[in-house]
Amino acid sequence: MKTLFRKLSLVALMAVVIVLLPFGQSSTKNMTNTVENAVLNCYFNQTNITAPAAIWIGLFTAAPSDTGGGTEVSAGDYTRVNITGAFPTASGTGTLSNDVEIAFAEAVNSWGVVSHIGIFTAQTSGTLLWWGALSEAKTISVGSTFKILVGDLDIEVD
Predict the structure, then answer these.
(1) C-beta atoms surrounding 54 within 10 Å
(2) Which of 20, 26, 61, 133 has minimal Cβ neighbours within 10 Å of its Cβ?
(3) In this structure, is the dihedral angle defined by the CA atoms of residues 90, 95, 101 and 107, taken in order, positive or negative?
C-alpha cells in the first residue's frame, strides 16, 4: 500500500487565507466568499457567525474557487474525512496545526490526480469554507492512502 504525505499551510489575514506551498512555489487565496462575508459582517455589522457542527476535508482533481466549484473526487469508495477536533484550541501564536493524523480510506478504485483540498460543513454537499492547492498533485491509485501527518496542515491567522 502506498501512503502519500502532503504538507499544506493555510495562512489567514483576517478575511483572507493564503496557501503557502513548500519551497515558495506559489501562493493562492483560498478562503471562500461565504467565509469572508461572514467575517466581515461579524466585525462590521455585528452579526453572529454560527460554527458548523462538524467540518470535513475533501480532495479535488480540479481547483475550486472562492465561489465554490472545482471537481471533487467522485470514485464510489471516496468519502470526505471528519476533521472536527483535529486542531488544538488557538492561543497566543495565531497558528494552528493538526494534532492528529488525517487519513482517507484506502482507495479501492482510482481517484485520479488529486491537486487540491477543501474544507466543508458536511460529509456530502455542505458549504465549501476553505480550499487550497497541494504543493504537488498526487495520483491516488488502487491501494493508495492519502494522509496528512500530524503538524502538516497549518492554519495561521495574522
Answers:
(1) 14
(2) 26
(3) positive
